[in-house]
Design a protein that fits this description.
heterodimer; A: alpha/beta; TIM Barrel; eight-stranded mixed sheet; disordered N terminus; B: alpha/beta; Urease, subunit C, domain 1; 2 domains; 17 strands; 21% strand
């Protein structure tokens, strides 16, 4: 980590844990003010929650397992145990889930809630900084309106975490943020503790249309590629500049220590917020989420990633991912996909309903059902059900315990939070949904939704459900 | 007697309009979407493209194709909603889109072309049609896209079996945009929407009265005149106060209104029911997407149905009209009776758009637009196993299934590249 001394991390354990990946040579990071919070870092703290034992449900763990007559024990906001015939600790709230299904909290890897909020007003049209093809300096979190009623309807669909991304107008649209779906006044209080940020990149038609239609660069796909490459090449130079500076600082410190009174402190390079983000991507601290429909363009992006030494976490909207499923699996890149969207533009022309099942199939395949929609995020379970059905009809063996991973563990993996959530395993966050039936049904409704062990939504008590200020 | 599996072979040779062979679908759960409701273990006999009988133990005429349903459900062909299917191939690719009329009149000079009718632009060979019909969608209501006029234009119901002359008699409808969505077409105020309509109506009734500032051409006056004499006009309108006003305004001027959108229609359900005004809605609309839709809620369909308002469902993406049955299923999850939900994508819209005498139900004499399902027709894990339109079996193939089969084959042989 450049310019963020390790010793400071040790002092500011929370701040560093909350945002270990983003160096920030801001005044708050100066050792003179050790108590200061890292700017924009998470202030989320789970409320205290009772010990809860969910009993006798059909449990899909998100690890590929199904437990009939299963129990899930949540203690201290974390999953304590998953199994059968678990004993209820004294004072535990026992939820009889007989005949019902339990899954990990649903995770959407691609949402614009808060940045394209409801109601869609001109005043809150904050999702695309469409003024320059490379805006890696902007952060989606700075556009989030936490009062978007879409958060509460998503919660009713069982969504407990999501990534909010900038739009796809730009080649590089800016940083995305992963949040917990909790009602809050500030986005910092929703921010998923310790989650890495994302970088939104976009292939194909959108950037070249947005800029090309105004006779600006880029107006072609080759222009797009030149744009990504120049941006990362500049960031490489920027990293070199800082490396040189760090060396000069070390030299200066040594000279001073050796008593050289004439030693001159080196001048740091000018901070460039765009290049800073891309440098963090190349260091592996920010995960690339790449809007990319066509298989050939995905292959181009994989080459660019290789050229500059970064990894693409997931291709989003990859309606042609099925054409490249083996390679995606081999390179460990997830496909974040729709069940049945296609055809609304040329790069979506080859969509098929078996896309998700085919991407899921190879060894190491990582299929994700994503929404990109304030409607779709409310029923990702139904979208997964459609994709599962098409896969099964095409001859793939996809039981519910496998398909549930598309909306739980796999998005968690793509977001770098799988060690915290996405499956029902001891030690993970108590992000849990109890469904009134199999979630793979049009009639399924989330009965109860827990975030870090706190029951935030209870269908039986609609008056107590979260309501944003706007919804009053 | 031949079995279902032979149908594919027959189809390979048969153009869409070959004279239909008699078909007996045997032992089905027949959801008639009509007054008979659901009939267990029943048969549907198809002759000359029409339904010749519904009941138990029907005899197969000589030479009839017999399809054993084995208890699987059969429904009427589904409604694809108010749609641009066949009018736009790739919506963002202008050369393939014919659904909207851009008048580009200066802001101070409104211009209306109610005579604009999208029906002749319908492309029966659109690749969207097979994608929709193999999922059980056998017809849709063509609707132009709102552009820069309050009056959007006209459209007709079309059958999706691929015939060139696809329009269904008696379905022609005029579409009008209303509320904040139509601000740009009414000088920035919804109040001006009534003002402009007043002017247009006067032009119809007193031609020449508006001089050079006229909204309408002679053809437009003729077109609008027909609608002012009891014609069906769809108003895209969401806000309760607007719905109420526009219905009263329409009725006063001799128009038969249909509400489309209607996010807040539940608030005026009793008035709509009393005047028998139908609502065509998106059953998934539950967010306050704009200030016209602050009252959106998932049980809109249930509340309207409970009040006695005729309803139908619509999903506004032409590439995905197959999603309409998912809307119906969600409406059931939020309180709408199952039979009413099925009706809202079959007989309900057929009645609303004037083709209920021939389409939308499994009843003797109706066009044999039928779907055999793998399970509950409203369930997302169910697929259509066979579709018939006007008694002809549909080839259960689309460009999507061809792509699927090509790449599944490559996957098997390890030949992806």
């Amino acid at each position: 980590m450049r310019s963020f001394p390790a010793v400071l991390c040790a002092v500011l354990a929370t701040a560093c844990a909350a945002q270990p990946k983003t160096p920030s040579p801001s005044p708050a990071a100066s050792p003179a003010q050790p108590a200061a919070r890292e700017p924009f870092s998470s202030t989320y703290k789970a409320s205290p929650s009772p010990v809860t034992l969910i009993r006798n449900a059909t449990v899909l763990t998100g690890t590929g397992m199904r437990i009939d007559g299963g129990d899930v024990l949540i203690e201290g906001g974390r999953i304590k145990a998953v199994g059968t015939s678990l004993a209820a600790p004294e004072g535990a709230v026992v939820v009889d889930a007989n005949g019902r299904w339990v899954t990990p909290g649903i995770i959407d890897v691609h949402s614009h809630l808060g940045v394209y909020a409801s109601p869609g007003t001109h005043a809150a049209d904050d999702g695309n900084e469409a003024t320059d093809p490379v805006t890696s300096n902007v952060w989606a979190e700075h556009s989030i309106w936490p009062q978007d009623p879409g958060f509460e309807t998503a919660l009713q669909g069982g969504v407990t975490s999501m990534q909010i991304l900038p739009g796809s107008a730009n080649l590089i649209g800016g940083r995305g943020v992963t949040i917990k779906n909790v009602p809050a006044t500030t986005y910092q209080a929703m921010k998923f503790p310790g989650a890495p940020q994302g970088l939104k990149m976009a292939c194909g038609e959108n950037p070249k249309r947005v800029y090309g239609d105004n006779d600006q660069f880029p107006s072609t796909r080759m222009g797009n590629v030149a744009g990504y490459r120049q941006a990362f090449a500049d960031a490489k130079d920027y990293m070199e500049d800082w490396k040189e500076y760090d060396a000069e600082v070390a030299k200066y410190e040594k000279e001073k220590a050796d008593g050289d009174k004439d030693a001159v402190a080196p001048k740091p390079p000018k901070r460039d917020l765009k290049l800073e983000t891309l440098a963090e991507v190349m260091r592996g601290h920010i995960l690339v989420h790449n809007h990319c429909y066509r298989a050939d363009e995905m292959a181009t992006m994989l080459d660019i990633a290789q050229e500059f030494g970064f990894k693409i976490s997931a291709f989003h909207h990859g309606v042609e991912a099925y054409k490249l499923a083996d390679r995606l699996a081999k390179e460990g890149v997830c496909g974040a996909l729709w069940a049945d969207w296609w055809g609304f533009k040329m790069e979506a022309y080859d969509g098929i309903q078996e896309n998700i099942a085919i991407v899921d199939h190879p060894e190491g395949g990582c299929a994700i059902v994503h929404s990109d929609s304030e409607e779709g995020i409310q029923r990702l379970n139904q979208e997964a059900a459609k994709a599962m059905t098409r896969g099964v009809r095409a001859g793939f063996d996809i039981p519910p315990e496998r398909a549930i991973r598309w909306i739980t563990a796999n998005p968690a993996k793509a977001l770098g939070i799988l060690d915290q959530t996405g499956t029902l395993e001891a030690g993970k966050m108590g992000d849990v949904v109890i469904w009134n039936s199999t979630p793979f049904s049009v009639y399924a409704l989330a009965d109860e939704v827990f975030v870090d062990g706190v029951m935030l939504y209870d269908r039986a008590h609609p008056a107590a459900k979260p309501r944003s200020d706007f919804s009053l | 007697m031949r079995k279902l599996l032979l149908i594919a072979a027959v189809l390979a040779l048969a153009p869409a309009l070959a004279s239909a062979q008699d078909i007996l679908i045997r032992g089905a759960r027949v959801h008639t979407a009509g007054s008979a409701g659901t009939l267990e273990n029943s048969d549907v006999l198809v002759s000359n493209g029409r339904i010749a009988g519904v009941g138990k133990g029907l005899a197969a005429p000589a030479g009839a194709i017999v399809v054993e349903a084995n208890g699987r459900p059969v429904t009427p062909g589904l409604f694809g909603g108010l749609t641009q299917i066949g009018l736009e191939e790739v919506s963002q690719e202008e050369s393939t889109a014919d659904a909207e009329l851009k008048l580009e009149a200066p802001a101070w000079q409104h211009m209306w072309r109610p005579e604009f009718d999208v029906t002749p632009a319908f492309n029966a060979r659109s690749i969207l049609l097979p994608v929709a019909r193999i999922e059980g969608v056998t017809w849709g209501m063509l609707a132009p896209h709102p552009a820069d006029s309050l009056v959007i234009g006209q459209g007709s119901a079309v059958t999706l079996d691929g015939r060139f002359d696809a329009a269904l008699d008696g379905s022609r409808t005029l579409y009008v945009n209303w509320g904040s969505k139509a601000h740009d077409a009414s000088g920035g105020s919804r109040a001006a929407q009534y003002m402009l309509f007043d002017q247009a109506i006067r032009e119809v009734r007193e031609p020449g009265g508006s001089g050079s500032a006229a909204l309408l051409m002679p053809e437009g006056r003729a077109a609008l005149k027909a609608y002012l004499a009891g014609g069906r006009v769809v108003f895209f309108v969401e806000r309760a106060s607007d719905i109420r006003q526009v219905v009263r305004y329409a009725l006063k001027n001799g128009v038969k209104p249909v509400i489309a959108g209607g996010a807040e229609a539940w608030l005026v359900a009793d008035e709509l029911a009393a005047a028998k005004i139908p609502v065509v809605l998106d059953a998934l609309q539950d967010l306050p997407s704009d200030f016209d839709r602050l009252g959106s809620r998932l049980d809109n369909a249930k509340l309207l149905h409970d009040a006695g308002v005729p309803i139908a469902f619509t999903w506004d993406e032409s590439y995905n009209v197959r999603k309409n049955r998912q809307l119906a299923g969600n409406a059931v999850a939020h309180g709408l009776p199952w039979e009413a939900a099925l009706a809202a994508i079959t007989s309900g819209p057929a009645d609303i758009f004037g083709i209920g005498g021939a389409h939308g139900r499994i009843e003797k004499g109706q066009s044999a637009d039928l779907v055999l399902w793998s399970g509950d027709p409203l369930e997302v894990t169910t697929v259509a196993e066979q579709v018939w339109i006007a008694g002809n079996p549909v080839a259960m193939q689309s460009r999507q299934t061809e792509l699927r089969d090509r790449y599944l084959e490559r996957l098997k042989s390890g030949a992806t590249r």
